[in-house]
Amino acid sequence: MTAVPLTSVHALRNIISIRPLGLFSDIDGTLAPIVSRPEDARVTPKCRELLGRLLDCGVRVALITGRTPGTARLMTGLDRVVYAANHGMTLWMDGVDETTEAVAGYVALAGAVARELAGINAVGVTVEHTGPNVAVHYRRAADEVTARAGIIEAIAASPSARSFRVREGRKVFELRPPLPINKGTALEGLVRRFGMRGLLCLGDDQTDVDMFAAVAQLRDEGLRGASGQPARRADEEDLAGRSEAGDPRDAERLETIRGALERGCGVLRNRDDLEGSLAALENTRRDVENDAKMASFVGRASIVATAIATCALRREESRGDHFRTDFPSRDDQRWLGNQLCVIRPDGKLGVWYEGLAVGGRVHEGQTGDR
Ligand SMILES: [Mg+2]
């Protein structure tokens, strides 16, 4: 998928004339400016007015956000909008809160996580309990590096947090139930529910990528949206994971790769999760190899993902962006260096450790191939 700067509304003309038309958007950073206190964020009066005019024109407006329905409504001041709140876990429409039982079960547990994280010892860190989710913000921290490290350690030490999936956004960590629900599934559900034929989708953060991937997938089914193209071009790779050849098995394989990386190679890691992820990635890689498609997008993705998981499993320490819950300490004796991966002629992955030169000495670390 190629990003093209939107310099004129004419590029959207083919979409905005379609009915039923939807405007599905994130709120924070997209419709509401980012502010130092998240609780102060609001859409601008101009934005509120324009959303109202779109509603008056019969455009279905859905706001897909990490906020709770109540907070999202407070931020926009609009009740005619559909809210897919809590990252799609909660749907609010026409005054009715549609929370499923599976999601409701995590609300109390998220409260326990929020209590366990309340003692994070860093100035400027805010813990926000939003229904089944918990968000830990550090955008107000004077020392963001220290605050971020403190948050990671606190999450790793929280027993209740182990029931949640941890994702990192812009100066925020988000803990969500490990349910197959995200902004993308929420968007897809709303498109089908309202029979949308055209869609404009707006977002600004990593969690919004799920929405864009869903739009790309729906485009295959005839939805007009995102780029204005009537359907996927045969030569187009996109975030939904289609290959150059459009093989539906590749979309499934890329979803497996994505899930394995998300499960095993997130901010918090441990041996069991990494081994599980690596097994899934190696199966996928063999599968792609059997189809002689290693040179394709899915083939390259399977190699890179396997290399990431392999290196993550070997690195038995915590440092910077990753925290091994089974190896919580930094280990400069063995891991003050980088790992390098190559694909050998026989297709196997080779991994080397290259120690960094610090204080006139190169750290030897661990070497070996996989
Ligand atoms: Mg945002």
Structure description:
The longest helix is centred in the last third of the chain and has 20 residues, at 271-290. A 7-stranded mixed sheet has the order 5-4-3-2-1-10-11, with helices on both faces. A 4-stranded antiparallel sheet has the order 6-7-9-8. A two-stranded parallel ribbon has the order 12-13. The protein folds into 3 domains: 9-89 and 181-225, HAD superfamily/HAD-like (Rossmann fold, 3-Layer(aba) Sandwich); 101-176, Trehalose-6-phosphate phosphatase related protein, domain 2 (Alpha-Beta Plaits); 248-362, Fumarate reductase/succinate dehydrogenase flavoprotein-like, C-terminal domain (Methane Monooxygenase Hydroxylase, Chain G, domain 1, Up-down Bundle), CATH 1.20.58.100. Helix content is 37%, strand content 19%. The chain has 370 residues and is α/β, with parallel strands linked by helices. Bound molecules: magnesium ion. Magnesium ion binds next to loops.
What integer value in Å does the Rg equal?
22 Å
Strand fraction equals 15-25%
DSSP summary: helix tally: 11
Terminal Cα span: 33 Å
Number of distinct beta strands: 17
- Helix and strand succession? HEHEHEEEHEEHEEHEHEHEHHEHEEEE
Q: Tell me, what is the CATH class of the largest domain?
A: Alpha Beta
Within the CATH hierarchy, at the fold level, what is the topology of the largest domain? Rossmann fold
Which bin fits the share of residues in helices? 25-40%
**Largest sheet, spatial ordering of strands:** 5-4-3-2-1-10-11
The bound ligands are: magnesium ion
What structural class do you assign from the helix and strand content?
Answer: alpha/beta
